[in-house]
Fold these 4 entries.
Entry 1:
Amino acid sequence: MDSRRDCIAARSSRSLGVPMRRRSDIARVVAARFISRAGAEAAFFVGVWGKAAYHLHATPGQLAAVMFAMAVSNMVGSVVAGVLIDRHGPRNVLMLAEIVFVPATIAIAFAATLPALVGLVTISAFVTAFVMTASASFAPFLATETSELERINSRVEAAGSAAFVIGPAIAALIARYFDLGWVFAFDAATSLVGAALVVRVALVRQPKREAPTRGHALAETFEGMRVAYGSRPLRYYVLAGTVVWMSFGAFGALEPLFFRDVVHTGVESIGWINSLFGLALATGAWLLPKLPRPVVSARGLAVLVAACGLGASAYVGSGDLRLVALGAAGWGVIIGMLEPLLRTLMQRDTPHELQGRVTGTAQVHRHGGELLPLAVAPALAARFGVQATMIGGGLVATVVALLSLGEAAGIDRQLAALGPRDVHLQTLRTTDEPISPNP
């Protein structure tokens, strides 16, 4: 009798052990995502921006070169990382990338010239893309059903968003009480911790190593563009998003100089303000479902784009740090509502079988919109000043959005004629966060 009881207990222990182990694995992945991204955000907003603007006294053109190099390197790295993750799994890619990243980020602390900084951040951004892409790709390898996939993704995204708030704040403290170079040491330390956390993670689904097949990826990409540009609603959503992303792009080259030359404050202020901005993003995403349902429309999107432009202008409209903080909070709330709404509308009006391709088209516009202003922002800043250029960019976005209200109203009437549809509001994702090169 006792032996039978022991047998049953052993079987029960084994059956309960698997879920317990998997919960532990999920917790490790979530922690790795948070820790890795916190270090990356600290190193970018305070480390790289601070190094360029405050230590190397970068001009708008030089800072634009830094941002351009990071953005392009990150895009290329993300594509390569995706292929390797499919072949070898996110755990192996993440562990190797975290280890390689340590010397890459520490080297930035010793950059003595701007060309050296550009070269080093190019390498660092490439490796960062592997870290961020892998840490965000664990869910399909850990989930056994769709509902679990959604829960894991939700936790990973929440960890990434929390890191966007915490990372710059930690960097601000380091810059305030130690030396800027220690921000990169913190980034390196978080990488080692992130690698250690996932060493023992057991993947439920192993990566498939299929033989190469003759595909038509380019043709499918163009198909996504054709659908996005050929559909009146989708075309409007993509172009509205492009207007917003272009207004973000100028900030990448000018925002550190705004704090240095207009606000006349230390590099730690960039960290504090961006932490506040991240908190406001989350607040905006929380508020969106509580707004009246008519907001979920093309006109609602147009109004939020216009408000986003005004928010950007208000953010940089004063040299008083207190007003800058207030502007950052207001602008962050608006973007926190706008980005999930934009993605919701696009997904609602895109055929199911084309979701990925249309989303890819929107991402091309996003990256292009963020990069294009880097070519003109330095010249405009030299002609009109850093603050005036940033204010002007926000006002242009507002004017364009207001001029599009008639088209937005027409789209809403066209869609209303098709009858009511269920809408599932999307949540804020880490990829929605502007300016940061860390996906």
Entry 2:
Amino acid sequence: MLTLDQFDYFAPSTLRGALTLAARYRGRAVFLAGGQSLLPLMKLGLLSPKTVIDLNRVRGLEYIRGDGRWVRIGAMTRHNSIAMSRLLAGKVPLMVEAASLIGDPQVRNMGTIGGSLAHADPAGDWGSVLIALRGVIQAASLGGRRLIEADKFFVDAFKTRLRPGELITEVRVPVPPKGSGGAYLKLVRREGDFATAAVGVQLTLDKTGAVSRAGIGLTSLGPVNIRAVRAEEALIGRVPTDGVIEEAADAAASDARPVTDPLRGDEDYKRAMASVLTRRAIKLAVSRARGGA
């Protein structure tokens, strides 16, 4: 039977209370959000924190709001709430699509967007989705709040730009303009598994049919969620013909930095999947931008 090492447990009811505890135990405490990553690590003895700060009773961190230009999502919002959100389905459908592909029902009902981002698993889906959407992450401490662009948030596997004493409080996503479409495609060994590879694409077409904006994020294809800059550049200002899309897909494979995984394939296989998924995701995003399903 697996047992947990002894630790101090706090369950504050306010954000200030949580931040006060974070400051007191600066760098020595972990936050508990959905617990879908933290608790298994603790049970397996891979992580033995001395202090756990439970955020589930903190008021005001679970919401989805739109203000015209932006959609704001509280850090404690569950994946399933995002998957079921009518607001997001109408304004940022890429987030709804991605949320529905995360884990299994337990993970979707318990896991949170803030917890997933803070965990910074390169196989996590939200990082790539936010990169594609040009989202920003709001971090708070007793010293104030700051915004971090999604493509600059991840430093390395399981490491972010969050400072000691900071926690994620909100995710902000710009509402895509008219003529936009997105897609998130994911290759898994079995339902509910981590991605072998996944690609998020969000693009906008201008009146001539050329791509005016493009965002592409890669999941499980490097030490962090990757912004496929060269793939984006291959699309900008060009009508997305099959040839242009193929060029962007090849560029995404070059942007990827995969490592061999005995369970999910070697580097060459993963680069090939980066290209295949990018090609398919771009084609689907273009179809949606043109008004297709």
Entry 3:
Amino acid sequence: MEAQTFLKLLLSVLFFILIPGNCQKCNLSSIQIQQTNLGKDPRNGVDTVFEVEVRNLCSCNLKSVFLNTQGFASSVLVDPKVFRQQRNIYLVNDGHAIPSQSAVKFRYSWDHYFRMSPASIQPEC
């Protein structure tokens, strides 16, 4: 009986040690940003339409995903629930979690693409 109690306690401790460790794998490199040039905007024929895919490569959900991008602008409205400026960085998906191996997409239109990089994330493990 004592051995069973000890084994249960040991397994419980190991469980709580190993589970939080999954979040340690989640870092800024867990966010992949891909931009695709979709061609000229038919509305004005001048600007180029870009589709941005923000993909979560982490095994955990990621919330409060923020991106760095210098001087971002768009000649078409970008849904602020998907991508909006907060101070000097940009919030993705209204701060809601992006599930593991899933992506959030949005489009913008400008005469050039804007370089984007992950600024911060909050893992949900």
Entry 4:
Amino acid sequence: MKILITVQDNNVAPRFDQATEVIIAEHDGQKLMAEPRTIILPHKSADELSDLIIKEGVQCVICGGIEETFYRFFNWKKITVIDGVIGSHGEAMQMAFVGSLRPGQILPSAKKST
């Protein structure tokens, strides 16, 4: 499974359309297939980020808030969206790979920082 996580600092970015950094990682069900890639976007653009997701063949998007139009577009393209996630991007990635990450989930890393 190839996932993309919107990132701000070391956390899942709170808004899809405001993300300027993403991490793309691929997992074969047992382990990471390669080191996750970090991509710095030149500016905030939900449209350009959506294009990147399609071009990269991403199967799952993990983000904070996302506009309904993008959410529906990804569903139409058969891309899973796990939105409303709050916490560390690393923790979100690990949980996604084992199938335990859910939309709206507040991760333990977010609870520690409050």
